[in-house]
C-alpha cells in the first residue's frame, strides 16, 4: 500500500503537524454536479457533527454504508439533499446501525453496514433512493464510486 505523507506548516515553514494517511482509493475521479446523485448522504460524528463517511439512501429510513464507518465509531446523524458539505442539508438522527457479522477491520472483508434513521426521509428532486435494478447494476456501481463529497 502506498502511504502519502502530509505536512502542515506555518507561513515560515515551521512543521506544525505531520501525518501519514493511506492513499485515496478513487483514482481519476471528478467532482459531481450538485444534486446529480440524490441518493448520497454524509455521515456525521461527534458533538460538532463533522463529516466522516458517506452512504447511500436505500429507503425512507435506511442508509447503506461501509462497516468501517461504524466499527469502533459512534455516528450521530446523516445529512442529505446536496453533495456540498457547506450547504444547510436536511439532518436526520441515526437510531442504530448494524454491520456485517463477519466484518474484518484488518482486511475490510465484508465491509458493509446499514443505518436506521429516526425520521422518514421526504423524497423530492434533490433526495431520492438509489435505483437497484439488474440492468443498471454496472452503471449504479460506477456512479456510486464517483458520488463522493
Automatic annotation (TrEMBL):
UniProt keyword Disulfide bond, yes or no: yes
Pfam families noted in UniProt: Trypsin
PROSITE patterns for this protein: TRYPSIN_DOM, TRYPSIN_HIS
GO molecular function: serine-type endopeptidase activity
Residues of the Peptidase S1 domain: 26-149
UniProt record, GO biological process: proteolysis
Keywords, in A-Z order: Disulfide bond, Hydrolase, Protease, Serine protease
Family: Belongs to the peptidase S1 family.
Protein name: Trypsin delta/gamma-like Protein
Native source species: Tribolium castaneum (Red flour beetle)
Primary gene name: AUGUSTUS-3.0.2_32356
Amino acid at each position: 500500500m502506498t502511504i502519502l505523507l502530509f505536512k502542515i506548516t506555518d507561513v515560515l515553514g515551521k512543521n506544525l503537524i505531520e501525518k501519514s494517511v493511506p492513499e485515496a482509493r478513487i483514482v481519476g475521479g471528478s467532482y459531481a454536479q450538485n444534486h446529480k446523485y440524490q441518493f448520497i448522504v454524509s455521515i456525521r460524528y461527534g458533538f460538532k457533527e463533522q463529516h466522516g463517511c458517506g452512504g447511500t439512501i436505500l429507503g425512507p429510513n435506511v442508509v447503506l454504508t461501509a462497516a468501517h464507518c461504524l466499527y469502533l465509531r459512534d455516528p450521530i446523524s446523516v445529512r442529505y439533499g446536496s453533495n456540498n458539505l457547506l450547504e444547510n442539508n436536511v439532518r436526520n438522527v441515526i437510531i442504530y446501525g448494524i454491520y456485517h457479522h463477519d466484518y474484518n477491520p484488518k482486511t475490510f472483508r465484508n465491509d458493509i453496514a446499514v443505518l436506521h434513521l429516526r425520521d422518514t426521509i421526504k423524497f423530492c428532486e434533490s433526495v431520492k433512493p438509489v435505483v437497484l435494478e439488474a440492468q443498471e447494476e454496472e452503471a449504479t456501481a460506477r456512479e456510486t464510486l464517483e458520488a463522493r463529497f
